[in-house]
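Intended use. Records like the one below are meant for learning the mapping from a protein sequence to its folded structure. Do not use them to infer anything beyond what is encoded.
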Amino acid sequence: MGRLIAISNRTAADASARAGGLAVAVWESLTSTGGIWFGWSGNIVSGEPGEPDVFTDENVEFVTTDFTEAEHDGFYLQYANRVIWPVFHYRVDLAHFGHADFATYAAVNERIAGLVSPRLEKGDSVWVHDYHFLLMGDYLRRGGWDGPIGFFLHIPFPSPEVFHALPEHETIARAMCEYSVLGFQSQTDRSNFVRYLVENYEAVDEGDGWISVFGRKIRANAYPIGIDANGFAKAAVSERATTAAARIGRFLGGRNLVLGVDRMDYSKGLPQRFEAVGKLFDHFPATRGKVSVTQIAPPSRSKVEEYRDLRTQLDELAGRINGDYGDLDWIPLRYLARSYDRKELAGLYRIARACLVTPLRDGMNLVAKEFVMAQDPEDPGVLILSEFAGAAEQLSDALIVNPHDAYKVAQTIYRALEMPREERKARWEKLRDIVVDQDISWWRLKFLEDLSADLT
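Structure written out for the chain above:
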């Protein structure tokens, strides 16, 4: 394999951003091949974006561009986050459709493709990431690139019936089929995409991931993303993790901790989770005064109206639960709208008796895997996982729940709190083995192996 060329909305140009997530996944390949990473600089300018910022760090060349105010609004805030994000998370009711925003979305894809194309060399492989750049492969092909282009979708791909709600669904689907390899988080997502092509364009599923459509063959597979499993296990026993655990331990006063960690996003099912917590205290009185629920939910996309409304809803639900059940020395539900670093979170995961990972829809959800790796092998906590998270396909030994069934989630929390140690250990060991075996390196190598095959 020659150089790897990565394209994503945000890059790891800031070294502090290389501690987890996408950066860990691609960094080793970029550094080993002398690759290039293209993306947004994070700056918004009032005039024209000007020339991109080009610099090299650890054998990786970064090419980042500013967005104009119109690009940031139409491409990022509007089409990416108020159209694609809700539709792909099955929330068509929250989508704000507009042809002008799609035109801006397409124009940004085309402009960044124009930065990439002149720097491509024979032998390169291009790896495009996520819903911001669904059209990137098409624009690179138009620019003359006939080498391998891979695309990985980090969020879910919806059922064909939901995808059809996008006025531009055909344009997007045809553009996606210009990629050589399409990666999805789960078999469900992959099946949804293939079914859309079969039902609408007489595509043929050839087996082994190969699809014949629009006169060409592409490969579409599930590549469930992992974490730096061993690194996170070490983080859970670090000094910073121990300090964080001690801080919350003083508040717990010997009570069992039930923990949730999510961005404040309507896809995470936080109102439904809070309702389940209320039902836990309603229907299982033995938990009152004995269990403390802590939800960490740093705000995201605060400029988008739906997220402001969600914050208000969570504030009201938490206030009701604490008003109904709180006591002088006990707060049933602590709700912290701020972020913590990964080592602090690892320390909290380690002492939690149960972790609530109950999104209404999620591509993967790495919190579930982080919780597993943070556990004390001799006394592990219990993972409660939504059936609608991509992680549920791998982590079937978690307690799987429907997040819309508040009473059942409450019942499952109680079951987790009462679960004997031997059952907790048996479940955790199976989960740990999967997370370790299918870690971030496994994911990266699995995808790049397919991308480096003879696909042209």
